[in-house]
UniProtKB/TrEMBL annotation:
PANTHER family: PEROXISOMAL MULTIFUNCTIONAL ENZYME TYPE 2, PEROXISOMAL MULTIFUNCTIONAL ENZYME TYPE 2-RELATED
Recorded superkingdom: Eukaryota
Record GO biological process: fatty acid beta-oxidation
UniProt protein name: MaoC-like domain-containing protein
GO terms of molecular function: (3S)-3-hydroxyacyl-CoA dehydrogenase (NAD+) activity; 17-beta-hydroxysteroid dehydrogenase (NAD+) activity; 3-hydroxyacyl-CoA dehydratase activity
Organism ancestry: Eukaryota, Metazoa, Ecdysozoa, Arthropoda, Hexapoda
Domain MaoC-like: 1-38
One of the record's GO cellular component terms: peroxisome
Length: 109
């Protein structure tokens, strides 16, 4: 990765990412002028997990389910506002140090 332009405090940064095989490329762009501030950044993935991870506990035993159900309800009520976030979030719920549930919130599409 290399810094290519100066970023002035208060400017908005957007990180664009794309995958090419086992490599994920990153580019940070200044939104106000469209110039790349960081270019040539990437991370190589050694192992890629695909597929669905099964929950290790039942949904009724997790208190966090109520929070995500509320978020889901709000997305249905205000879909345009949710889409304006333009991001995808992965939340991993842990219990005793192990992941027991994963939530993916796609507010991009």
């Amino acid at each position: 990765a290399r810094f290519t332009k100066v970023v002035i405090p208060g400017q908005t940064l957007r990180v664009d990412m794309w995958r090419n095989g086992n490599r994920i490329h990153f580019e940070t762009v200044v939104v106000e002028n469209g110039t790349a501030a960081i270019a040539g950044a990437y991370v190589d993935l050694n192992a890629i997990k695909t597929g669905i991870i099964q929950n290790k506990v039942t949904a009724s035993t997790l208190k966090s389910d109520a929070v995500f159900e509320y978020i889901n309800d709000q997305i249905k009520v205000q879909p345009d506002q949710a889409k304006s976030v333009n991001g995808i979030f992965l939340v991993k719920i842990t219990k005793d140090g192990e992941i027991v549930k994963e939530w993916t919130m796609d507010l991009k599409s």
